[in-house]
Amino acid sequence: MEYPVGQVAGFAGVTVRTLHHYDGIGLLSPSGRSRAGHRRYDDGDLDRLQQILFYRELGFPLDEIAVLLDDPGADPQEHLRRQHQLLSGRIAELRRMADAVETAMEARKMGIDLTPEEKFEVFGGKDPEEHAEEAEARWGGTAEYAESQRRAAGYTKDDWKRMQAEVAEWGAAYDALMEAGEPATGERAMDLAEAHRLHIGKWFYECTAEMHRGLGEMYVSDERFRAFYDSMRPGLAEHLRDAIDANARRLA
User: Fold this and answer.
1) DSSP, res 33
2) What single string gives the DSSP state of each residue in 36-51?
């Protein structure tokens, strides 16, 4: 069987533009063409697309996926075993979080008070104040830190809601950019990196391109920041770091 690009996009839940991009970079080139020159995908192509999407969901960058799939010594069954192991780990973590939320919902509905241990065991003993403490330890003596503290002290509940809405909108835009397979050095990625920098300037302190570059490195090296950005989309922290670097060079 052979399938046109629009039908394959529908099967996989991706855009036609994404499939065109995969073809353009040699990651997934259709096995055939119609008489009119339109892309036609066979069952082998669909198997490869499935592998690509599994790895994308796990946060692998496109160039790394290409290396993995094009390794002549690679066993297709080994790809599936690796993906199953990684996905199972993620599923277990999400299920643990979902169970904790369900427990809290049921307890509230039934008027049961959970113990402190039961309320917070899902977070694995992580202290949310560590971020604030570390920020003060790193930057407490800087003008930027003082400015961010001054501004934050004056924000209302509605201000924080607007800020969070802007972050969510930005995250959705960045997710769509990565879904389309656009590189971190592309115009759209650099524009969103610049929007990220300006958002910091709007709400906290004036963030220069060089300061922003340092933040980008921290988003990858610090597992807590990486987890925050990768929760928007696996691999987003590294992609953003590279986009921030590219944008800083563009602004230089």
Assistant:
1) E
2) T--EEE-HHHHHHHHH
Which stretches of 111-251 are DSSP H helices?
116-120, 130-139, 143-153, 157-179, 187-203, 209-221, 223-232, 236-251
Residue 32 pairs in a beta bridge with 40
Measured at the alpha carbon of residue 12, what is the angle toward residues 2 and 165, in degrees to the nearest 5?
A: 155
CB atoms within 10 A of CB 216: 24
3-state secondary structure of 168: helix
Q: What is the pLDDT of residues 180-192, one digit of tens each?
A: 999 999 999 999 9
- Name, in order, each residue with C-beta under 8 angstroms of 96's C-beta and a sequence gap of 6 or more: 122
pTM of the model: 0.48
3-state DSSP assignment of residue 175: helix
- Helix, strand, coil shares of the chain, percent, nearest 5, are 75, 5, 25
CB 47 within 8 A of CB 83: no
pLDDT digits (tens, 9 = 90+) for 68-109: 888 777 677 777 777 777 777 767 766 776 666 666 666 666
pLDDT at 186: 96
